[in-house]
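Record 1 of the preview.
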Amino acid sequence: MKKGFTILCLTVIATLAIHFSSKAQGYDNAIGGRFGAANGVTFKTTLGGNKMIDIIANFRSNNNYNYFRVTGLYEIYNPIDGAQGLNWYYGIGGSIGTVKYKPYNSSDLYLSADGVLGLDYKFADAPINISLDWKPAIQLTPDTDFDASGVGLSLRFTF
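->
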């Protein structure tokens, strides 16, 4: 299933890269992959000014569990002086998804409150955006827990 999901994501990214071109300054929308503690697809869109929404669909798996979740983040961007195209950002949001416990063959609803802190760079002459961020989460269900493992590298095509 992971292989099929990865192939689907790469196909969507390639299709969008062919059909859309980037703006000279910044970007309004971007889609691509997020790689790190959990892998998935990310889509960013502007709300105007220095605010964006980031929607992330990702999955994580190990010997004890599988989970799939969708995260929505409200992000505020700030330019870094002297580094054109480079911004730092922070934000808040939440996640919803499912978690399956392999040893017990049972499933639960996954809910969390999420934060994000990162760096975002838009290449001036290419429709490419890259970001590195930390996305800690306070898990609300099925158990209450703090997850600090949300470091991710995102590579997106902008349009």
